Amino acid sequence: MSVLRPLDKLPGLNTATVLLVGSEDALLQQLADSMLKEDCASELRVHLAKALPLPSNVNRPRIDLIVFVINLHSKYSLQHVEESLHHVDASFFLGRVCFLGTGAGQEHHCILHRNTVLKLAHTYRSPLFFCDLEVEDFRATMAQRLVRMLLICAGHVRGVSALNLLSLLRTSETPPPEEL
Amino acid sequence: MSKEPDEDVDLFDMEQFKRSFKKILQRALKNVTISFRDAEENAIWIRIAWGTQCTKPNQYKPTYVVHYPQTPYAFTSSRLKSIMPLLGQALTVASKHHQIVKMDLRSRHLDSLKAIVFKQYDQTFENHNSTTPLQERLDSRIIHENKVENERVQRITQESFGDYPQPQLEFAQYKLETKFKSDLNGGILAERKEPLRCLIKFSSPHLLEALKSLAPAGIADAPLSPLLTCIPNKGMNYFKIRDK
Amino acid sequence: MSVSQQDLDPDSTTDVEVVTDTEEELIKECEEIWKDMEECQNKLSLTGTETLTNSNAQLSLLIMQVKCLTAELSQWHKETPEITPLTEDVLITLGTEEFQKLRHDLEMVLSTIQSKNEKLKEDLEREQQWLDEQQQIMESLNTLYSELKNQFVTFSETRIFSELKTKMLNIKAFKEKLLSTLGEFLEDHFPLPDGNVKKKKKNVQESTKQLITLHEILEILINRLFDVPHDPYVKISDSFWPPYIELLLRNGIALRHPEDPTRLRLEAFHQ
């Protein structure tokens, strides 16, 4: 099926799987490496994809968290992400999706405005993080946060569900009026 | 510059070429300094310092010309509009051709220009395969979902650019004189009858390698626009695009 | 004894049973939970999928969030927390885990406090050193102060007057001493010529006048310099012995008048 659904399979024992979607493979690879460096009690798996829908003939585990990576330096990456969003089931957006904007640190290379990404995240009621994935320290911190989010979405943390987390994280405020 | 020979040229006589070239230039302009150097086997290097009727030749701003006698090509280092016709004429007559045409190909690297013009760029010097993705250390835990797509992109890139190292160019310039096309209905620009003039310049220390790596890096769709991929084939990097 | 041994045996067997019981119980619980999960999964797979577009996303997501949150809320209300059966080995395992955690935390605290302590010790040493230095400075300043204080004498006119008087008397005495010493010195080393002096130049006329001593010449010069400062010149008289005049001139003790070679003055050493 071409639409990605949450909770479509039984979970693997003690495993949590995250899907990183973004058009630039090198960035995704770096983020995946940083995430796998974190220690945590559960086993992590990372899937990298350029766009959805994913090829359907593969047997893959249940996906607990989707991270859409948008590079503010390229309109192309935004386009891919927007197209991919149509292939995600609505129930994924109850806390199992987040957006990550990279490249905001280099103002003169940015083509996309921060507000564009803010609006997108606001429309889909999902949390948005800005992080320069090229800088190792920022990437490591971001990887830590994502791993913790992933554990919660996979249900490995007692008492907190993905939806609870979503309500606790303030989703992006309405973008400032000049954009609307 | 290229020349289109109308007659066959039998044997190339170096001395005669030099004499003839010198004579033509000196007849037209008294104050020129011309020196020749046979640097390589198949090439002749000419250094010209230009002066006017009254002033001496300016030795600090010479023009260099490299001519490959076996081919109808010559490469020049100057773009001074004033001397081009004269230089062109001298080269044409001295090498016994009939006409000279300026090619829209410019670069700072003579070897690259030669490679493009003599169509020698597809010789692989070392057999280096297109970059294989680095082995991930923990590759069992990272899974690439789009392997098929990645392979397709690699294949298309290879088809358009080939396996070999690309010749080195610094710029690609596109002068557009086309009517404005837009998806949105209306708008002021769409109603203009005159074509819109616009100049797009791509610059990079190594332009063709950069273009080659666009699709694999995920910055652009493969296949790339043929306007970009035709640069080595057509031997042009300055384009004028008009509505047909 | 035998009774107690018997007692021991049944105990050991019950222990073993207890262990396997807890394990089995836990496994049973897990299996039940898994079955529930499979049922839920089946129900879930029956629900349809729904994709969103940019325009309808916000509203439908908000509605869905409301529904799911209320469902979760009611679930939390219904659920009573179940504890794992507190059998001995479960307690032991939990206890060891807790203790280990506690130990780890305490070790961290210990190391933090130790490093803090060291830092404080270093700070203390540094401050102590600074204090010592300041005290030393204070002491030296104090001694300086007391010395200065002692030197400070109360202002009193009579005291000053008597001091000046004594000073003057001292100076006068010193002057007398100097003059007498000078006189002695001059007598010893620069005597008046008598008959024993060889005459080097024959055309030198012996003066009939009585020659005066160098001491007297000097006295005349000094007195003239202090009596008439604007014209300290003394005419050379015959009673001055020429060699001594030459001696005074050559050594810069006396100077000739710039226009009149017969006049002399004493060099003003005091100016």
TrEMBL record, chain A:
Highest taxon listed in the record's lineage: Eukaryota
A GO CC term assigned to this protein in UniProt: nucleus
Localization, UniProt: Chromosome, Centromere, Kinetochore; Cytoplasm; Nucleus
Keyword annotations: Centromere, Chromosome, Cytoplasm, Kinetochore, Nucleus
InterPro entries the UniProt entry points to: Centromere_Cenp-M, P-loop_NTPase
Pfam family, one: CENP-M
Function (record text): Component of the CENPA-NAC (nucleosome-associated) complex, a complex that plays a central role in assembly of kinetochore proteins, mitotic progression and chromosome segregation. The CENPA-NAC complex recruits the CENPA-CAD (nucleosome distal) complex and may be involved in incorporation of newly synthesized CENPA into centromeres.
Assembly notes: Component of the CENPA-NAC complex, at least composed of CENPA, CENPC, CENPH, CENPM, CENPN, CENPT and CENPU. The CENPA-NAC complex interacts with the CENPA-CAD complex, composed of CENPI, CENPK, CENPL, CENPO, CENPP, CENPQ, CENPR and CENPS.
Name of the protein in its database record: Centromere protein M
Gene (name only): CENPM
Automatic annotation (TrEMBL), chain B:
Residue ranges the record marks as coiled coil: none
Entry keyword annotation includes S-adenosyl-L-methionine: no
Source organism superkingdom: Eukaryota
InterPro entries linked: CENP-NAC/CAD_complex, Chl4/mis15/CENP-N
GO cellular component terms listed in the entry, alphabetical order: chromosome, centromeric region; nucleoplasm
One of the GO BP terms on file: chromosome segregation
Subcellular location: Chromosome, Centromere; Nucleus
Keyword list, A-Z: Centromere, Chromosome, Nucleus
Transmembrane segments: none
Family recorded in the similarity comment: Belongs to the CENP-N/CHL4 family.
Protein name, per record: Centromere protein N
Taxon lineage: Eukaryota, Metazoa, Chordata, Craniata, Vertebrata
UniProtKB/TrEMBL annotation, chain C:
Transmembrane helix listed as a keyword: no
Subcellular location: Chromosome, Centromere; Nucleus
GO biological process: kinetochore assembly; mitotic sister chromatid segregation
Family: Belongs to the CENP-K/MCM22 family.
Source organism of this protein record: Ictidomys tridecemlineatus
Protein name: Centromere protein K
Entry coiled-coil feature ranges: 103-151
Cross-referenced InterPro entries: Centromere_CenpK
Stored PANTHER family: CENTROMERE PROTEIN K
Pfam families, per database record: CENP-K (PF11802)
UniProt keyword terms in alphabetical order: Centromere, Chromosome, Coiled coil, Nucleus
GO cellular component, one term: inner kinetochore
The keyword Nucleus belongs to this UniProt entry's keyword annotation: yes
